[in-house]
Design brief:
With 252 residues, the chain is mainly α. The chain has 11 helices and no strands.
């Protein structure tokens, strides 16, 4: 598959929006990037490039963010999430489709309820220690993600109850960096069209960097309540899109 210069130029410009969102909240760019890139290059290539861009964006935010005091917690949760994701993918090959659909419905219902509750209650005033239970949540989120395709929202649902929105952004950045590294390594082992993935990734890097810088600057000027509202909105849209895509696929 050849990548046209026109399409590369289009996606390079469009990358500003999803990675501006990443700089603002620490998560959520795939929600916008994958559909846009899929329309131009097909879903497999878009998903692979999204994983590579998650590595570069996560590494950039980790290196440039001065608040690295919570980095170890984020990496531990991310490692647990990677293990859970692998287990979920394996489990999906064994459990009946009706059970997987039931898990998806339950995950969507919990996600929507939690987003509504978080918006109603508002953000926490001060962050609490994550502790070992954070890794358990990461493991569970990965497991749910492997089965249903919803992995980021379960983390946000839990962390927004014990972390301020700005600390949540820091932790989620580290968690998703670890998850993205695992996805990219897996792709390099079993995937193809690696040169196209690298070309697409390189085309998006300049606008990704600009988006990350702008989003980070905006996040520092955004109140915790407004940032929590954005987080809840992303969780809501994510779980609804995941449910929609799953039921569309099951009907084919």
């Amino acid at each position: 598959m050849s990548l046209s210069a026109e399409h590369l130029a289009i996606i390079a410009v469009l990358a500003l929006l999803p990675y501006g969102l990443k700089g603002l909240t620490g998560f959520g760019p795939a929600l916008l990037f994958v559909p846009m890139a899929s329309a131009l290059f097909g879903q497999p290539l878009a998903v692979a490039a999204s994983g590579a861009l998650d590595v570069t964006s996560g590494a950039t935010l980790t290196v440039t963010d001065p608040q690295v005091r919570r980095g170890r917690e984020g990496f531990l949760v991310g490692t647990a999430m990677a293990v859970g994701t692998a287990a979920g993918v394996v489990a999906l090959t064994y459990i009946p489709s009706s059970v997987a659909a039931g898990i998806l419905v339950l995950a969507v219902a919990i996600g929507l309820f939690s987003a509504f509750a978080a918006q109603r209650n508002g953000p926490v005033d001060s962050s609490q220690a994550i502790g070992p239970q954070g890794s358990l949540v990461g493991l569970l989120a990965g497991l749910i993600g492997g089965i249903t395709g919803i992995n980021g929202p379960p983390l946000v649902i839990y962390f927004q109850r014990i972390l301020t929105p700005h600390d949540l952004r820091i932790i989620i950045t580290r968690v998703l960096l670890v998850s993205a590294v695992v996805r990219v390594l897996t792709f390099f082992i079993v995937g193809d069209h690696i040169s196209n993935v690298m070309l697409l990734t390189l085309a998006c890097l300049p606008m990704q960097l600009i988006g990350l810088i702008l989003g980070t600057k905006i996040s520092r000027k955004t109140s915790p309540r407004k940032l929590a509202t954005v987080n809840s909105a992303i969780v809501t849209v994510s779980v609804l899109l995941a449910a929609y895509n799953a039921f569309i696929e099951s009907g084919r």
